Amino acid sequence: MNRDVENNVLFKGDRCTIEYAVRQNGNMPAKKDIDKLSWQEKIKLEVLLEKMAKMGKLSESRFKHFKGKIYEFKSGQYRALCFQDTKSWVLTNVFKKEKNKSPKTAGARAKEIMKEHLEK
């Protein structure tokens, strides 16, 4: 499994690549969000992302459609939002899900980051 965070790639597997979205200013919001997690939560999420890169799919309890072109990886209370760009899943942002609903701002933020990333 290759890992090249310098060039925004988190995991490169046999089935797909997991990478960070890069904004116009060079920031990678999902990387910043993941770096803020406790080491235990970070490891759980990264194991899930690496599994996706190796196998190309996960159970619906771990990965599902969120809204529009946005999908979500689910690790405990944390959600990593992403979109597909050819054979890559591009991470936009990560948030902690409170109660039974995701914050409305999380999806809007993911959509904005996706738009910026694709315009580069």
Structure in words:
With 120 residues, the chain is of the alpha+beta class. It has three helices and seven strands, in the order βββααββββα. Strands 1-2-3-7-6-5-4 form a seven-stranded mixed β-sheet. It is globular, with a radius of gyration of 13 Å.
Question: What's the quick description here?
Answer:
The protein is α+β, with helices and mostly antiparallel strands and 120 residues long. It has helices spanning 29-35, 39-55, 104-119; strands at residues 2-4, 9-12, 17-20, 63-67, 70-75, 78-85, 88-96.
Summarize the SSE layout with pairings.
Layout: E1 2-4, E2 9-12, E3 17-20, H1 29-35, H2 39-55, E4 63-67, E5 70-75, E6 78-85, E7 88-96, H3 104-119
Parallel strand pairs: 3-7
Antiparallel strand pairs: 1-2, 2-3, 4-5, 5-6, 6-7
List descriptors.
single chain, 120 residues, alpha+beta
**Quaternary structure classification:** single chain
Unreliable segments of 5+ consecutive residues: none
What portion of residues is helical?
25-40%
Protein structure class: alpha+beta
Number of H- or I-type helical stretches: 3
- What global shape is seen? globular
What distance separates the N and C termini?
A: 27 Å
Give the strand order of the largest sheet, numbering strands 1, 2, ... along the chain. Answer: 1-2-3-7-6-5-4
User: How large a portion of the residues is in β-strands, by DSSP E?
Assistant: 25-35%
Radius of gyration: 13 Å
> Order of helices and strands, N to C?
EEEHHEEEEH
Count of extended strands: 7
Could you report the average pLDDT, rounded to the nearest whole number?
92
How does the major sheet shape up? Answer: 7 strands, mixed
